């Protein structure tokens, strides 16, 4: 099911987002697991604080990436992360 634009995503309580200087990458840290994020994944997830809607996140990212197809790509990315159980 595609993301509802009014959904206010937030990382699950068991998940932490950290920047790893050695790997020069954002990581999602979970009990007994770490996932390296590529591209703008970390930037998107930093905006997932439970106060912004999906539409707000798309708008915010649009200021930095005005020509990117964010209206399609951001909700699809968030849906994949939610399907893994990393977003609530």
UniProtKB/TrEMBL annotation:
GO terms for molecular function: quinone binding. Keywords: PQQ biosynthesis. Pathway: Cofactor biosynthesis; pyrroloquinoline quinone biosynthesis. GO terms for biological process: pyrroloquinoline quinone biosynthetic process. Pfam families: PqqD. NCBIfam families: PQQ_PqqD. Monomer. Interacts with PqqE. This is Pyrroloquinoline quinone biosynthesis protein D. It comes from Actinomadura pelletieri DSM 43383.
């Amino acid at each position: 099911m595609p993301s509802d634009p009014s959904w206010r995503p937030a990382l699950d309580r068991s998940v932490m987002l950290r920047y790893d200087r050695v790997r020069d990458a954002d990581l999602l840290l979970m009990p007994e697991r770490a996932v390296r994020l590529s591209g703008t994944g970390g930037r998107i997830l930093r905006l997932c604080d439970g106060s912004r809607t999906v539409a707000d996140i798309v708008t915010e990212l649009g200021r930095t990436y005005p020509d990117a197809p964010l209206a399609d790509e951001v909700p699809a990315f968030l849906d994949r992360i939610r399907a893994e159980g990393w977003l609530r």
